[in-house]
Design a protein that fits this description.
heterodimer; A: mainly alpha; Helix Hairpins; elongated; B: mainly alpha; 3-stranded mixed β-sheet; 3 strands; globular
Chain lengths: ~100, ~625
């Protein structure tokens, strides 16, 4: 299987993820979609690293995982807090911060 | 070529000429009420001191040979920038000493007269302060050795004139007249300042000697422009057509002011400017022709107005315009005329001051009423005033051997030499002079008494009549003294140049014709006004009404200058409000409105932000790809 198939898969996953972020209202689902985009990127990094024969891409993939872990911690904390006050995890309802 | 000598000996203190009256003005104006009791004596003394020093200077100048009579005293560096330098330096030569003597002696007499004339005025001290200020500025004007310092004096006399015309500022008419004089003089001053700038650009200097030495080297067009600009300045200051309208209103000032400033000295500054700038006007036929034309027009205009006015001072003001027209005409003739312009200026300064002071004396005895239709038969009540007024009247009419005969006759001669039409005009204007002066004399001193019931005419006190007597004697003898004893032609020749040309008509015939024309004018006046004068002015024909309204100069100025200016400023205000403010306010409103719409993008929906981010990211990628394509 050629490495380009992995890149195509990464692109499909990223697209799915971004569509998920845009169309879903539930914060948890959006969050998962973001994770999917991050992991699509990771897949692309690793695939390119393999294609180019150096380890830089794989190292960056680790960084991305670390950042994703930190983001999950902060993001989930925010979602939980919002859920406690509003009894809902919809992202459309908390729209007070506007013009 | 003249030799300029440094100041020394009697000339070492030239600045004192200006210093005395300036100190007097400072004491009187800053001294406040403390100086009320003795202020007028200080003011008079200051001018008399200058006069005495001027006489000493004259004697010292006469002791020198004609080539060494130009004395320059450098006082201080004034402006010194790169190539440009103007210093405070005084130049005394044959021309300035004539002016200095006229200003200080006639000015001194007028100061003495004012002690009596302004006796009951609560502001007499301030009046003398302003008079001293005027004398100082006028002396600066004639003693300056460069155009810029002359300009300072020029503005100084303008200021003093403004202050003195509006001296009785509680009268609306006086305040308005002062403003009018000031504004109309500004128009002339624009000419002077532009002229000086052009002189500097052309010659790289504003000093008289440097400029005149190079006068021949500049182009014709430049010289014409300089000449015309200086002429504009002269028109403003000397009330020449078309800037003449302020002089008649200036008669709102106290009579000694009219005598000193608006007859004897300040209004002749324009003649001084033209004669002083003679080397410039000699280079340009166009400018000097325009000078002659302006002089001729004003000569008739003034005479015409003077013939119809019923207020004694306004009639005299018309006559002043007319006589200055003579001088300007003579000055425009070139070296043939310069000397005679100055000659007439001096004799006119004496006899016109005499006439004004006489008019002031009459008004003093007639409760300050000016209307000649309510005068008449005053000769018995005011013998001294009458006799001196008569002397001055004969002088201005040019009856031999009174002083005006010699000077006016010379101008008429020079005019005939120049151009026969101008010569005929000068003779005709002399006829007008005969008419209006005789009219004034007859209406005031002869005929029947037409006084209002409360009038008790009386002669003025000696402090006023003694200057009148001295000026009256001056009106008789100044002409002869200057011509035969002073040799004014040879005296001024090194400064102004002088030349005579042979005339086809013998001089005696010309004199006879002129005298005949003058006497015809006088005879007409006598027949018209000897028997009876209507107390109310008759309606008169079109010409009389026009002259009585000063040839509608106010209406004309209103139409051609005031209204368009109003219109212009109103449209500018409109343009400012709608166009300029429209652009500024409009762009502010546009930005405000735009941002009002733009902030709607901040909807608070997290998902739309996400979409914007995605769109932005895609855009960045697309741009990057496109840029990398080639």
């Amino acid at each position: 299987m050629s490495p380009s198939a992995y890149v195509v898969l990464a692109a499909i996953l990223f697209t799915l993820g971004s569509v998920g972020v845009l169309v879903r209202r539930n914060a948890i689902v959006m969050f998962m979609s973001v994770e999917m985009m991050l992991n699509a990127c990771n897949l692309a990094f690793v695939a390119f690293a393999r294609m180019n024969g150096n380890l830089d891409g794989q190292v960056v993939a680790f960084f991305v995982m670390v950042v994703a872990a930190a983001e999950v911690v902060v993001g989930l904390a925010i979602i939980v807090t919002i859920f406690r006050t509003r009894r809902s995890a919809s992202v459309d309802e908390p729209n007070l911060l506007k013009y | 070529m003249e030799v300029t000598t440094a100041a020394g000996g009697a000339f070492g203190y030239l600045w004192l000429l200006i210093g005395f009256p300036l100190a007097g003005a400072a004491i009187l104006l800053f001294g406040g009420k403390r100086t009320n009791r003795w202020g007028h004596y200080v003011g008079t003394l200051a001018v008399v001191a200058s006069a005495v020093y001027a006489v000493i200077l004259l004697l010292a100048l006469m002791g020198r040979s004609p080539e060494e009579r130009t004395v320059v005293q450098h006082i201080a560096e004034w402006i010194f920038i790169n190539k440009f330098s103007a210093s405070i330096a005084l130049q005394l030569d044959q021309l300035s000493i004539v002016f200095v003597l006229l200003i200080t002696i006639v000015g001194g007499l007028i100061h003495v007269y004012s002690i009596g004339y302004m006796k009951d005025d609560p502001d007499r001290r301030r009046f003398f302060g302003f008079l001293n200020l005027f004398v100082a500025a006028m002396l600066l004007l004639v003693l300056a050795d460069n155009y810029l310092l002359l300009y300072a004096g020029w503005e100084g006399v303008g200021l003093a004139s403004f202050l003195l015309i509006g001296f009785w500022q509680h009268k609306n008419s006086a305040a308005a007249a002062a403003k009018k004089a000031f504004v109309m003089n500004r128009i002339g001053d624009i000419g002077l300042s532009l002229g000086i700038m052009l002189i500097f650009v052309t010659f790289g200097s504003v000093t008289f000697s440097t400029v005149f030495d190079q006068a021949g080297e500049a182009g014709d067009t430049t010289m014409t422009w300089i000449g015309l600009l200086l002429l504009l300045a002269a028109c403003g200051k000397s009330a020449q057509f078309p800037l003449q309208a302020w002089l008649l209103d200036a008669m709102e000032g106290p009579t000694p002011v009219s005598a000193l400033i608006h007859a004897a000295t300040m209004v002749t500054a324009g003649v001084y400017l033209i004669v002083r700038s003679g080397p410039i006007f000699d280079q340009t036929i166009v400018a000097s022709t325009v000078v002659v034309i302006i002089g001729t027009i004003t000569m008739f205009l003034g005479a015409f107005i003077g013939s119809a006015k019923d207020e004694i001072k306004k009639a005299l003001a018309g006559s002043t315009m007319s006589q200055i027209g003579y001088m300007i005409l003579a000055a425009g003739l070139g070296p043939v005329g310069y000397v005679f312009a100055i000659f007439h200026l001096v004799t006119h300064g004496v006899f016109k001051a005499n006439l004004f002071l006489g008019a002031g004396s009459v008004m003093h005895g007639m409760k300050n009423r000016e209307n000649m239709r309510r005068y008449g038969a005053l000769r018995a009540a005011m013998i001294v005033t009458w006799l001196s007024f008569m002397a001055a009247t004969f002088a201005i009419m040019g009856i031999p051997p009174f002083s005006g005969f010699w000077s006016k006759d010379d101008i008429i001669h020079a005019a005939f030499e120049h151009n026969i039409i101008i010569g005929i005009c000068a003779v005709l204007a002399a006829g007008f002079t005969g008419f209006y002066m005789t009219r004034m004399l007859v209406m005031t001193f002869f005929g029947k008494a037409r006084w209002e019931d409360d009038q008790h005419p009386h002669e003025s006190p000696p402090v006023m009549t003694i200057p009148l007597i001295i000026l009256g004697i001056g009106s008789i003898f100044t002409g002869m003294a200057l011509l035969f004893w002073g040799n004014i032609e040879t005296w001024l020749e090194p400064v102004t140049g002088f030349e005579t040309r042979e005339l086809a008509i013998p001089a005696i015939v010309l004199e006879g014709v002129t005298l005949a024309v003058v006497l015809i004018g006088a005879a007409i006046a006598i027949t018209m006004y000897r028997r009876s004068v209507a107390v109310e002015a008759p309606k008169g024909n079109v010409l009389v009404r026009a002259a009585r309204n000063s040839m509608y100069d106010d209406a004309i100025n209103d139409t051609i200058a005031v209204r368009p200016t109003y219109w212009l400023s109103r449209s500018l205000v409109w343009a400012d409000r709608s166009v300029i403010d429209g652009i500024v306010g409009g762009s502010a409103a546009f930005v405000g409105g735009l941002s009002g719409r733009m902030r709607r993008l901040q909807s608070g929906f997290a998902r739309s932000y996400a979409l914007a981010m995605l769109g932005g990211a895609i855009l960045v990628v697309v741009v990057m790809l496109l840029v990398r394509l080639p």
